[in-house]
Amino acid sequence: MKRWCGKPSRAGIAAWEILALLAILAAVVVGGRLLIWGDSGDQARVMTVQHVQLVCEALDKYGADNGGAFPRASQGLAALVAEPTTGSKPVNWNGPYLRDPAVLQDAWGREFHYVAPGGGDPRRAYEVWSLGADGREGGTGANADVLSWDRTTWLPQRS
Q: Do 48 and 146 touch, CB atoms closer than 8 A?
C-alpha cells in the first residue's frame, strides 16, 4: 500500500468557492431564462398572439356554421362564448366556440377590437386586433399592435 507523502488535504470548501459557484449558477439561470422564455413583455405578447389565433379559429367555425355570417359589431366577440340574444340571431349557432371568456382579451386585460366585415382588398371577413401593452396604435416591442390580418405582427417585436 502506498502512502501519500504530500500535504494533507484540507477539509471542506472555502466560502469564496461557494459564493463563486452561486454567482455562476445565478448567471446561468438568468441567462437561460431570458434565452428560453424571453422577458415578461415577450411572454405577454406571445399570449396575446395565441388568443388572437384562438379567436380567429372560433370566428371561422362560427362563420362556417352560419353561412358565412359573423357576429355583428353590436354582438361582439361575446357571441363566441354565448348565443347572441340581440340583433339578428345566428341561423345555426353551435357554440360555445370558446369556453373561456378570458381568451377574448389580450394579455393586458383589454378586450380585443373587432369589426366585421373587415377592410382590405379583397375585403376581409373580419378583423381582430390588440393595441399592445400601451393600448395605443402602433408602437414597438411589447407596445406593438397584434393584427389578425397581418401575421408579421405575430412575430417577436424588438424595441
A: yes
